[in-house]
C-alpha cells in the first residue's frame, strides 16, 4: 500500500486556521496520523488541535506580497469619520468578523457565556455600503472598541461554537479569562505579512471534579477516616452498623514500627521486580507533545515471583497471620507513606514543564491540585511512579492480604482448610488481579494513565484504598464465617465466570480498537465516524451498553460479596462503593466524549441507549 505524502514535518512552524473561522494562528506541527490524515498542531497558548492539510498554510506563502506603504495610520483611522458613518460600514462585514472571533473565544473558554465586552483586535477590510453612492473608494478600518451584538446573534454564535466543538478535537485549553492569541484572517494573510503575537502566560484551564476545591478538603479528611472506620468496624464481634461508631483504641495501637518496615520492604521488593529487564517494553498513548512513553509491563512476572517469595517465607516459618493481627497498623503505615509520596509528587510538579502537567490537576488551587495530581507522568529516569503504584504494591498486596486472612481463619477456628466462602473470595479476587497483570498493557489506555495526574487521590487509592478496603470480604469472613452448600457455590462460580467473560471480552475489544482501528481483524466491527478522525465502536459488547466492562465488573463484585451472606451490610461495601464509582466515571466520560465528538456522540448515544446495565441504566 502506498504511504500518503506528508507535506509538513514535525517541528515545522506554519499557519493553522482556527476551526469554523477565517482566523489563522502560528502553530507548530507535532505529528501526522496517516490513518486519519490529520496533523496534530499546538498553538502558542498551548491549545492542541487536529487539522486537515487544507487548513494549514506555510508562513512564507503569506509573505510574498508585502504590505502596501500607502496605508498610513491616518488614512486607516481617519478622525473625520462620524460615528454614524462608521456604524453603517461595519454593520455587515465587521459584525461577521466579530462573530467569527467570538466563536473562537467561546471554544477556548470553559464558560458558555460569550464575553462580548472583551476588546477584539481584528482588522478587516470593508467596502462602502451599496447605498452610499458618494463613497466609491475602498476603505480600511481598525476596530478596537467593544461591539454589542443582539441576543439572536449571541444564540447563533453559541450554536456555531457547539458545532465547532463537535467537529474538531480540541485537546487543551488555556486561560479561561478570555485571553487568546492574536489572530489574522485569511484575507489579511494573503495581503500582508503574518503578525502573530505570543499569548500571555496563563494557568491551564480545568474542569474541577469531585466537588471542586471544597470537595478536595472533604476527600482528604473523609478517605482516611473511612478506611479507619472499616478496619475498626469489621473487627467487632457484631459489625452491624447499629453499633456505629466503633470504639477507638488507644493511640499507641495505631503505630507499629515493624509494620512500617514491613510495608517499606514490600514496596522496595515490588520496585526491584519492576525494574528488572524482564517482560515487554510497551508504548503508552500519545501525549500532548506527541511523545509516547515506554513502560515495563512485567506485572504477571511480579505476581508469580511474589507468590513464590511468600510461599518460601511461610515454609521458613514466617507467621503470615501477622497481617490479620496488625491490619490497622499496616493500614496506618501505608497511609503515612502515601502522604509522604503525595507531598514529594506535588513539590516536584512545581518544577515540571507545562506540557508535563495534567489538565485536570492544574486549577491553581494548591489543595485541589495536591489531591487530584499536578503532574501527569512523574518519572525518576525511566521509573514511572504512577504506573508502578497503580499495578504493583497495592494490587499484588491485595492478594497477599487475602491469603493471610485465609490462614488466619484456619488458625482461629482450628480448620485444616479454609471455608468455601474464603476460598471463593480468594480465588475470585486472585483471578481478577492476575488477569489485570497478564493484560497489564491495557491499562495504558485507561483514564487514570491518560488523563489523571498523580497526586494524593491515586497515591492513597493505590497504596491504601485497594489493599485495605478491597480485602474487606476476606477480613470479615475470618471472624464471621458463612457456610455454603455446593449448589450455592456452583451458582456463585457461574455468576463470576459470566462477569469475567464480559469484562475481559469487552476490554480486549476496546484495547485492540484503540491501538489499531485499521487492523483487518477488526474490519467486521461497526463504528460511527467522528470529525476528529477517530471512530466510536458500536459493535460486539460495545453495541449492547456503553460500558460493558463496567457491567462485567459489577457482576464480578456481586460474586465476591455473595459468599459473605446477608447477615450484615458491611461486606457489601465494595458492591455499593463500586456502583457509585462507576456511575461517577460514566458521567465524567459522558461529558468528555460529548465535548470531543459533538454530534457524533449524540448519534452514538441514540444507537447504544443504555449506559451500564441493559434495559435498566
The best one-word shape is globular
Q: Could you give a short account of the major beta sheet?
A: 6 strands, antiparallel
Strand content: 5-15%
| Strand segment tally | 14
Helix content: 40-55%
Span of the ends, CA to CA: 44 Å
| Uncertain stretches | 64-205
Oligomer: single chain
Mean pLDDT: 76
Radius of gyration: 30 Å
Quick synopsis:
With 617 residues, this protein is of the alpha+beta class. It has helices at residues 73-76, 83-90, 93-108, 151-167, 186-191, 212-233, 257-275, 299-315, 322-325, 327-349, 366-372, 385-391, 393-413, 420-438, 447-450, 456-469, 472-479, 486-515, 548-561, 573-597, 599-607, and strands at 13-17, 23-33, 38-43, 48-51, 56-58, 122-126, 139-143, 184-185, 280-283, 294-297, 379-380, 383-384, 527-529, 535-537.
Structure description:
This protein has about 625 residues and is an alpha+beta fold. Among the domains are: about 255-275 and about 295-480, no CATH class; about 485-615, no CATH class. About 50% of the residues lie in helices and about 10% in strands. Strand 13 (about 525-530) and strand 14 (about 535) form a beta hairpin. The longest helix is centred in the last third of the chain and has 30 residues, at about 485-515.
How is the secondary structure organized here?
Layout: E1 13-17, E2 23-33, E3 38-43, E4 48-51, E5 56-58, H1 73-76, H2 83-90, H3 93-108, E6 122-126, E7 139-143, H4 151-167, E8 184-185, H5 186-191, H6 212-233, H7 257-275, E9 280-283, E10 294-297, H8 299-315, H9 322-325, H10 327-349, H11 366-372, E11 379-380, E12 383-384, H12 385-391, H13 393-413, H14 420-438, H15 447-450, H16 456-469, H17 472-479, H18 486-515, E13 527-529, E14 535-537, H19 548-561, H20 573-597, H21 599-607
Antiparallel strand pairs: 1-2, 1-5, 2-3, 2-8, 3-4, 6-7, 9-10, 11-12, 13-14
Helix pairs in contact: 3-4, 6-10, 6-11, 6-16, 7-10, 8-14, 10-16, 12-13, 12-16, 13-14, 13-16, 13-17, 14-17, 14-18, 14-19, 18-19, 19-20, 20-21
Amino acid at each position: 500500500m502506498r504511504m500518503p505524502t506528508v507535506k509538513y514535518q514535525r517541528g515545522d512552524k506554519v499557519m493553522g486556521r482556527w476551526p469554523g473561522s477565517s482566523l489563522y494562528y502560528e502553530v507548530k506541527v507535532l505529528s501526522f496520523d496517516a490513518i486519519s490524515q490529520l496533523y496534530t498542531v499546538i498553538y502558542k497558548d498551548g491549545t492542541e488541535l487536529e487539522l486537515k492539510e487544507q487548513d494549514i498554510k506555510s508562513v512564507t506563502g503569506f509573505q510574498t506580497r508585502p504590505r502596501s506603504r500607502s496605508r498610513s495610520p491616518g488614512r486607516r483611522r481617519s478622525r473625520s469619520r462620524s460615528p454614524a458613518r462608521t456604524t453603517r460600514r461595519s454593520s455587515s462585514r465587521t459584525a461577521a468578523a466579530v462573530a467569527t472571533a467570538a466563536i473562537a473565544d467561546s471554544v477556548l473558554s470553559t464558560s458558555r457565556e460569550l464575553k462580548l465586552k472583551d476588546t477584539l483586535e481584528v482588522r478587516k477590510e470593508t467596502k462602502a455600503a451599496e447605498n452610499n453612492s458618494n463613497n466609491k473608494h475602498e476603505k480600511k478600518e481598525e476596530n478596537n472598541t467593544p461591539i454589542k451584538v443582539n441576543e439572536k446573534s449571541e444564540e447563533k454564535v453559541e450554536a456555531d461554537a457547539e458545532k465547532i466543538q463537535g467537529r474538531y478535537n480540541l485537546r487543551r485549553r488555556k486561560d479561561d479569562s478570555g485571553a487568546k492569541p492574536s489572530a489574522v484572517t485569511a484575507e489579511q494573510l494573503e495581503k500582508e505579512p503574518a503578525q502573530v503575537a505570543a499569548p500571555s502566560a496563563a494557568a491551564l484551564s480545568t474542569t474541577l471534579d469531585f466537588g471542586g476545591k471544597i470537595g478536595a478538603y472533604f476527600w482528604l479528611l473523609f478517605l482516611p477516616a473511612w478506611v479507619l472506620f472499616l478496619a475498626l468496624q469489621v473487627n467487632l464481634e457484631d459489625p452491624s452498623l447499629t453499633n456505629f461508631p466503633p470504639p477507638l483504641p488507644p493511640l499507641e495501637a495505631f503505630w507499629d514500627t515493624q509494620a512500617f518496615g514491613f510495608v517499606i520492604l514490600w514496596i522496595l521488593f515490588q520496585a526491584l521486580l519492576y525494574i528488572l529487564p524482564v517482560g515487554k517494553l510497551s508504548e503508552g498513548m500519545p501525549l500532548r507533545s506527541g511523545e509516547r512513553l515506554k513502560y515495563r509491563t512485567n506485572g504477571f512476572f511480579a505476581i508469580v515471583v511474589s507468590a513464590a517469595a511468600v510461599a518460601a517465607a511461610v515454609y521458613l516459618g514466617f507467621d503470615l497471620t501477622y497481617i490479620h493481627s496488625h491490619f490497622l497498623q499496616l493500614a496506618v503505615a501505608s497511609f503515612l507513606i502515601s502522604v509522604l509520596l503525595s507531598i514529594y509528587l506535588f513539590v516536584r510538579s512545581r518544577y515540571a514543564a507545562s506540557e508535563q502537567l495534567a489538565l485536570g490537576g492544574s486549577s491553581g488551587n494548591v489543595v485541589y491540585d495536591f489531591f487530584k495530581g499536578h503532574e501527569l507522568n512523574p518519572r525518576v529516569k525511566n521509573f514511572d511512579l504512577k504506573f508502578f503504584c497503580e499495578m504493583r504494591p497495592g494490587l499484588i498486596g491485595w492478594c497477599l492480604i487475602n491469603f493471610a486472612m485465609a490462614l488466619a481463619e484456619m488458625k482461629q477456628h482450628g480448620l485444616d482448610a479454609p471455608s468455601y466462602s474464603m476460598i471463593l473470595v480468594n480465588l475470585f479476587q486472585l483471578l481478577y488481579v492476575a488477569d489485570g497483570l497478564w493484560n497489564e498493557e491495557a491499562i495504558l489506555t485507561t483514564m487514570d494513565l491518560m488523563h489523571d495526574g498523580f497526586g494524593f487521590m491515586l497515591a492513597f487509592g493505590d497504596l491504601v484504598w485497594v489493599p485495605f478496603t478491597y480485602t474487606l470480604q476476606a477480613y470479615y469472613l475470618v471472624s464471621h464465617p458463612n457456610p455454603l452448600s455446593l449448589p450455592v457455590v456452583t451458582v456463585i462460580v457461574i455468576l463470576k465466570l459470566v462477569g469475567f467473560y464480559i469484562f475481559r471480552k469487552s476490554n480486549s475489544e476496546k484495547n485492540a480498537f484503540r491501538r489499531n482501528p485499521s487492523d483487518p481483524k477488526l474490519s467486521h466491527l461497526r463504528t460511527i465516524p467522528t470529525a476528529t478522525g477517530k471512530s466510536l465502536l458500536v459493535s460486539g459488547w460495545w453495541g449492547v451498553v456503553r460500558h460493558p466492562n463496567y457491567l462485567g465488573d459489577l457482576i464480578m463484585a456481586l460474586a465476591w460479596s455473595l459468599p459473605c451472606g446477608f447477615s450484615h451490610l458491611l461486606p457489601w461495601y465494595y458492591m455499593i462503593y463500586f456502583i457509585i464509582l462507576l456511575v461517577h466515571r460514566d458521567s465524567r466520560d459522558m461529558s468528555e466524549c460529548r465535548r470531543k465528538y459533538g454530534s457524533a456522540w449524540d448519534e452514538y448515544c441514540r444507537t447504544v441507549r443504555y449506559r451500564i446495565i441493559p434495559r435498566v441504566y
